[in-house]
Amino acid sequence: MKAILGKKIGMTQIFTPEGALIPVTAIEAGPCYVTQVKTNDNDGYEAVQVGFGAVKPVRVNKPMQGHFDKAGVAAARYLREFRVDDAAEFTTGQTIAADVFEAGDKVDVTGTSKGKGFAGTIKRYGAHRGPMSHGSKHKRKTGSLGAAGPSRVFKGHHSPGRKGNAKTTVQNLEVVKVDVENNLILVKGAVPGAKKSLVVLQTSVKSK
Q1: φ and ψ of 158, to 5 deg
Q2: What are the residues facing 184 on neighbouring strands?
Q3: For 164, which of 3, 45, 102, 116 could close a Cys bridge (C-beta 3.0–4.6 Å)?
Q4: Predicted confidence (pLDDT) per residue in 175-201, tens digit
Q5: How far is residue 77 from each of residues 7, 50, 52, 157, measured CA to CA in Å?
């Protein structure tokens, strides 16, 4: 499995040699550094811990600074762990750059969706509204919460609440272009999150 951390730059568009326009999202992918390698013998599973993003040393506590010093890398703002089949292929301090992916690869992109605040059922879920005729008291109301038999509201019922600001994954997106010199990966379509937010690119589970 291939994976990398990145920062969402924004959306733009490029043209194919045939003249077709493709909307893409630019992602500043890496460079990332391997901060820890976990093996079955030591940890009970195979995984690689990766750091991304520069941070001032004063903003890192002493235990984490010792963790980075042991790995021989600079302090990172973000740390994420990826399960791999064979962690022995990685070494502590190794650099993972944008060239880990190439054009045509299929990836799953995970980020935190934009927060929309507190919203009603219509805006939050696109639920059916009530009668819009004159005199109706239920134009945008929630409606029935269920039958009288269970005497409770089932989990997952569409109710007003916080919209967005949640971990979101968009699957099976195509990598259109990789710019190794500028650490950029162009992915076809939109990815979750605001500009400058953290995103995670992984090999698509549907392509395995």
Answers
A1: -70, 105
A2: 28, 179
A3: 116
A4: 999 998 899 999 999 999 999 999 999
A5: 12, 11, 6, 37
